[in-house]
Structure prediction request, 88 residues.
Amino acid sequence: MVNVCDLYLIDKQIQHGNITIDIKKNYWMDKVADDSEIESYLKKSSISNLAGKDTVDKAIELNLAKRSSVKYFSDVPFLMIYRFRESY
Prediction:
């Protein structure tokens, strides 16, 4: 599982209806990653929680999700990706 967000969202709270997401540093920010690292994490992860325009756009660019799957919390794009893989 990977959590990736645009850096400006750290320690912010975003809402959609009665759902609130706290983008807490201790949960969302293990490290600051560059674009190539983020791409690698997204491609390998079976579960991804993504927040922010740049981050969500990267997942769509990599064909990991469709734009129609994006939800908006306080005008911030938010996307959850679950990829099921065959077990061996």
